[in-house]
Every structure is written in structure tokens, then in C-alpha cells.
Amino acid sequence: MQLGFVINDMSTEQENYTTIRLARTAVNRGHRVALVGLGGFIYDANDTVRAHAHVPAASHYESDAELLAELQGEQASTERISIEELDVLMLRSDPADEVEERPWAPTSGLLFAHLAALRGVIVLNDPTHLAHASNKTYFQHFPEEVRPATCITMDRDEIKSFINAQGGHGVIKPLQGSGGQGVFVVNPESASNLNQMIDAVIRDGYAIVQEYLPRAADGDLRLLTLNGRPLMVDGTCACIRRYNESGDARSNISAGGKYELVTPDADALRLAGIVAPKLMRDGMYLAGLDIVGDKMMEINVDTPGGLNMIEDLSGLPFSAHIIADLERKVRLRDHYKRSLTNTELAMM
Questions:
Q1: Residue 104: burial class (beta carbons within 10 Å; 0-12, 13-18, 19+)
Q2: Do 342 and 274 fall within a single domain?
């Protein structure tokens, strides 16, 4: 199998990223892997989609760090590859990282992903629907019962009115963002700083304001789904509890949060069951559900992370399970002589 990963840029990849773990697992299973930055695509003069890609040179790597060191090393070089010769292209770039410096990048990456899908490459997550899921408004299309009360606006008075209606409590964050960046928790004690919080968020665009869920003080769950269902190996779900003991309200790992392997409770599994049909319909092959109590805070469909942490804590081969599932999809595509649509293959 020839497997490509679309990333923001090789220079910004880190060894604890899910993408690097999946790439190493694929190489170690005997597959050819290529990593393509958002600025590396080419539409050739002969109507071929190509890219400048980083291609691992070895056939086996003992650690994620070893693979990344090679790809980012002084001797690293890129190869000019044909995207159309790939079997699978996984879209693993984070659009939130491009908002300020390269706002053109996420859209351009999706355009080339569309071209690849039209040429028979299995593109995951499905680029047609991923284009509509690039910010947190995507979450508002899921059933109301899974979501906290939410307001999306740039109007300061609307934000204040929403916070007041919630008894002075709420969470304010940018509509486009990830990793807990620009997230503010409002309570009656912090009301004097509300204007500054609002200004800090809306200076870059729309704000999303949500009700505060008290159980968030205990952290949240990150539950990974595959083909619309909880990712599971040997009876264990790919699920961690993220929490922060420093007093920071954010539990994101990138914001200093800690994590532990947990079994999702009945509320989490019920929520996963409710959102599954839309994830399947939209071809959201790999997703990360962020859950607090009986509500879902976010659904990450761009770069769901945590796989390496879950795998290291459990000792179970979740990444190998995903790569094996991709191998299965390629076989299905070939059995049906490429007559299945990309969205169909994404969730089979």
C-alpha cells in the first residue's frame, strides 16, 4: 500500500503527534509512506497531481523520535511523487495553525485532496465534507441534545447577554482554533475582565460562547472513533481523560493538561452513538470526541490526536488496527474496480 499524509509542514511536526505514529506503523508494516506539506502540491502540465514529499528512507523505525529525526534532519530531502499513485491520502493538517500566516493553505490542501479523490485515491477524512467542518460551526449540525447551549457572534453585547443568561458563567473561545488556544472560562468573579476576554477572542474573528459545564472541573474525555464508532482493540476503547491540576481550566494536552487511560462511561457511549450517523454520512473516518459529562464540547475531524498516548498507556496496537483497516479499504476499492465513492469507502 502507498499511503500519504497531508501535514501543515514537516518543520512543525512533533514526535508525539498521531500522524508520526501512524506513519511509523505503516512503514514497519511494509508500506511506502509519504508526508506532504500544505505548500507541497503541484498540478502538473500533463494534468497529473503531484507533490514534493518527505519519504522515509528506512524500512523499520524503533521509535517515533527516530522517524521524525530523519525527516527533519539536515540530510532530509523531498521526492517529487505522483499523488494519483497513492492508495490512501490521510488529511492530517490543522487549519487553525494556518489562520495568521498562511490562510490560503487549508483551502488549497482540500482542493488538491478533491482532485486526488476524483482520480481514485481514498482520501480520509472525506474532503467534500471536511471543507464544511473547518471550524466549530460543524458541531452545531449535530443533535441539540449532545451540545451545550451555544452562541456564535462577534457582537460584544450578545456575548454579555448570553453570559448573563447563564448566571455569569460561560466559556468563550475562537470559532476557529484548537489545542485550547484563546479559551476563557467566565464566572462571576472574573466578570471585571470580561471585556478583555471578549476582545482577545473576537479580534481574530467570530467567538463561540458556550454554557459552562461544572463537570469540566474534573477534565474531559477524548474518545477516538473509527468508521463512526468508538475505536476499540481487544475490548479496550481508545479513550483518555484529560485534566489539569494547575488551576488552568483547559484540559488540552497542548495546554499543559495531564491524561490517563479510562473506560468511557454510559454517557460517553450514548453520545458517541448519537453522533455516529452524521460522522458516517460525512465520511469522517477518524474523529476525536471531546466529552464532559453528558454533553459533547467539540468534535475534532481535522487532526484528532491522542492515539500515541492511548497506545503507550494501554500497550495495545491501535495504530496497527487503523493501518490494517486502511489495507482493507484498499482491497474493497480494488474488488469493486473503483466504482465505490470516496465517502462510501471512508466508512466501510
A1: exposed
A2: no
- Asked if residue 61 and residue 44 are part of one domain, the reply reads yes
Q: What is the pLDDT of residues 200-236, one digit of tens each?
A: 999 888 999 999 998 888 899 999 999 999 999 999 9
45 CB-near residues (< 8 Å, 6+ apart): none
CB count, 10 Å around CB of 191? 14
Give buried/exposed letters for 144-180 (b at 16+ CB in 10 A, else e): eebbbebbbbeeeeebbebbeebeebbbbbbbbbbbb
Residue from 254, 234, 317 nearest 17 by CA? 254
Number of domains the chain contains: 3
Range of the domain at 176: 149-210
Among 245, 109, 254, smallest CA distance to 178 is for 254
> pTM for the whole thing?
0.91
For residue 240, the domain's CATH number is 3.30.470.20
Whether residues 200 and 221 share a domain: the answer is no
Question: Grid cell 500544505 — which residue?
Answer: 38
- Note the Cα 149 to chain centre separation in Å: 23
